[in-house]
Design goal:
Helix content: 25-40%
GO molecular function: nucleotide binding; oxidoreductase activity
Keywords: Oxidoreductase
Organism: Mesorhizobium helmanticense
Shape: globular
Largest sheet: 9 strands, mixed
Radius of gyration: 21 Å
Family: Belongs to the Gfo/Idh/MocA family.
Distance between the termini: 34 Å
Protein name: Oxidoreductase
Length: 345
Amino acid sequence: MMDVVLVGCGAMSKRWLDAARQIDGLSIAGLVDLDAERAKARAREYELSGAVIGTSLDAVLDQTKPQAVFDVVVPAARRDVALSAFAHHCHLLTEKPLADSPENARAIVEAARQAGRVHAVVQNRRYVANVRRIRRFLSSGAIGKPTSIHADFFIAPHFGGFREEMAHVLLLDMAIHTFDAARYMVGGEPVSVYCQEWEPTNSWYRQGSSASAAFDLGGGKVFTYAGSWCANGFRTSWEGSWRIVAERGSLLWDGHDDLKAEVALSVRDGLFDKTEPVDVPPLDPADRVDGHLGIIRDFMHAIETGTEPETRGTDNIKSLAMVFGAIESAETGRRVAIAELKDAQ
């Protein structure tokens, strides 16, 4: 049995607790929130009568002595939660983003290393079935090596609340999902980025609801991202809409279920090489999916076996560096090198 304390009992905690109650061998030993009544309400909702409730993470960890902490707090509080967890010899699984600044991200990753604890991030778009299929298909070489990766993200949600007052709202709140998926699907290592943000006249956000970015992912791979939080009409999937161009063909994914690829033939028709469809194989039994549930299981398996989870902090910091690099580029109007942002020494 693995005892866990969950800290941060806001709306997102429901997704964690929904997943946790499906896992045999996992017990929620404590719930922590600055608002004790909110933590008590979650305990009642999920029938966690034995869970210790508190407003101080240190106090609840002292009382419960769990093996792990689930961090669902706001990003500004993430570093304090991480340091508290590691000081109590706990492993840590945290909601995205890993941190609210490059400095805090590096500090958290380094603290996990020094403590010898497993540290991972809920970067759940990796656990989407078609993301897994695309990575496996591209790795097979069926259409050659990827060279150009293009993702569009156009949705117009009226969240209300803090998002509509955030700076860099699209890049900071959402884009990491797309950035991480791109890096994962093509095996990219971010090198540099140029990004522009703007606020359309129809926007109801304060700043940064629209952005366009071009990343060098190394090895001859370029990733372009175009997105908006205020584009009414013809909205994309929450996963975005993708075109991946490779040496001998291309792949299209609408972010839903339409996934197809074509490969070029050695026969030309006028100006163009002829192409033919090529099957993208179905999900492999070894591919881990199921969002929060899949990531929590992966995290527990890593603890039990002494291995590293896929979304470990030392890897996820590279996707977070893409976000902060894009923000810096948008603020300064220049291309930004990503290497120094992602390196955790």
